[in-house]
Amino acid sequence: MARITVDQLLDMPTAERLELAQALWDSVAANPENVPLTEAQREELDRRLDDYERNPNDGSPWESIKRSLRGE
Fold first, then answer.
1. What is the pLDDT of residues 14-69, one digit of tens each?
2. Cβ(35)–Cβ(28) under 8 Å?
3. Domain locations along the chain
4. What are residue 70's phi and psi, to 5 degrees?
């Protein structure tokens, strides 16, 4: 397998770098259990889950938030 340097990556056209970044992200997202969390991140996720379980009707649906951000 050929090695490529960071400088070579940065010299790639933007569209190619975006494609590469997406491919890398997809490979990470395919196995989220392999992404380490800090203790603080784990505590925050637990806190948010507890809050949701106590108040499942609080908050707004994602579609509503997207419309609001788009000014619709």
1. 999 999 999 999 999 999 899 999 999 999 999 999 999 999 999 899 999 999 99
2. yes
3. 1-35, 36-72
4. -85, -5
